[in-house]
Specification:
15% of the residues lie in helices and 43% in strands. It contains three helices and 19 strands. The longest helix has 31 residues.
Length: 367
């Protein structure tokens, strides 16, 4: 009996020692981290900026609708960035105890420049084939999707995970395969204010990823206007549809030395779009905007997606009313090594708002 008691007592001591070591290691790790809790505002308007990414080279968070974020980091410096604003890169110590961080909008002062459109466009197209990720690559990602009906929020979903692409673009030399993507969902949270919406399918993962990578505006269908900024570093290539019936315009911001484009923007506006008929209603897409920026993958030297934002406006008409649906999708990615394992655990053709997953790490979300 004494032997049994002695063994149990020794096991209890070992367990207490293990717990003490675990608590000590957690405390040491927390002590090594720096906490930045701040608010990001527009420098001119002093209004909060939502979906700003704060990145330390390993981890990231994004600001919420009030422009606020809470970030723990072990690194010495962080990047603060969003499309349309100047990027801030500074030491972590300069952000401690700062109530507010101000971002300046990115100026782009344009002047006319005369170029040969075919020659310039051909050079740009060749650079896409040689310098962009027309090869398998992986990235950590964050996706937020938000749906409003008549300006009232109906649904939202946040997803984090790992994405593998076989190719970024569908090209003649490297056609996009049918199974181009694998997605591992690591964490997910969502809310549904009302489920009584219309029974047409919104973006699934495959359709969304294909769309944000669609920036092909060929000279056969578009005319181009070329402008340069004051220091001649970038050329703004503006695409106009050749036909009067065309409703989509776009622009590339192209490095004047390398012929690589770092940003792409597209806009569609058609207030007279045809309706698609359903059983009890009809609907049509009247507006969308797409903004995409790119980054170099340090593991393969190729350019791939960094951020993408899609906004859509859909008009729904019934016998009783006309509703306006607004959808916003914001995608943020950071490159990882191709060797990192990925578990394909979601259906690519399922409506993004209907994806299910585990809310496994509450601390990850920046409230």
């Amino acid at each position: 009996m004494w032997t049994v008691f002695q063994n149990n007592f020794e096991n209890l001591n070992k367990a207490l020692i293990s717990i003490s070591i675990l608590i000590l290691s957690i405390n040491i790790k927390l002590a090594a981290q720096t906490n930045i809790n701040s608010l990001i505002l527009d420098f001119e308007t002093k209004t909060p900026i939502e979906l700003v990414i704060i990145y330390d080279g390993r981890d990231y968070v994004v600001t919420n609708k009030d422009g606020r974020f809470n970030f723990f980091t072990e690194q010495d410096s962080i990047n603060i960035r969003i499309i349309g604003y100047e990027t801030i890169k500074d030491a972590v110590s300069n952000f401690i105890n700062r109530d507010s961080i101000f971002l300046r909008s990115k100026p782009f002062i344009l002047g006319e420049v005369m170029l040969s459109s075919e020659t310039f466009f051909d050079k740009m197209a060749k650079k896409v084939l040689s310098d962009n990720a027309i090869l398998p690559h992986k990235e950590k990602f964050f996706l937020r999707a938000l749906l409003k009906r008549n300006n009232e929020i109906c649904k939202f979903i946040d997803v984090t995970g790992i994405l593998e692409r076989q190719t970024l673009y569908d090209t003649d030399s490297v056609p996009m395969p049918a199974k181009n993507y694998k997605i591992q969902i690591d964490n997910l949270r969502k809310a549904e204010i009302t489920s009584k919406l219309y029974d047409f399918k919104m973006y699934d993962f495959k359709g969304f990823l294909d769309f944000i990578a669609s920036n092909k505006m060929p000279p056969s269908k578009f005319d181009f206007e070329y402008k340069t900024n004051r220091n001649s570093k970038y050329i703004k290539v503006i695409a106009y549809p050749k036909l009067d019936t065309g409703k989509t315009t776009g622009c590339y911001f192209v490095d004047n030395q390398t012929y690589n484009f770092d940003e792409f923007h597209a806009k569609y506006n058609n207030q007279h779009a045809n309706y698609i008929l359903k059983k009890n209603f009809k609907y049509r897409l009247t507006n969308y905007t797409l903004s995409v920026t790119f980054q170099k993958n340090p593991f393969n030297g190729k350019k791939q997606l960094k951020q993408a934002k899609v906004e859509q406006k859909i008009e729904v008409k019934t016998n009783r009313s006309i509703d306006t649906l607004n959808m916003v999708y914001h995608f943020i990615a950071s490159p990882i090594t191709i060797n990192q394992k990925i578990k394909n655990n979601t259906k690519l053709t399922k409506d993004i708002f209907k994806i299910n997953g585990i809310y496994s790490n509450p601390e990850q979300w920046d409230e």
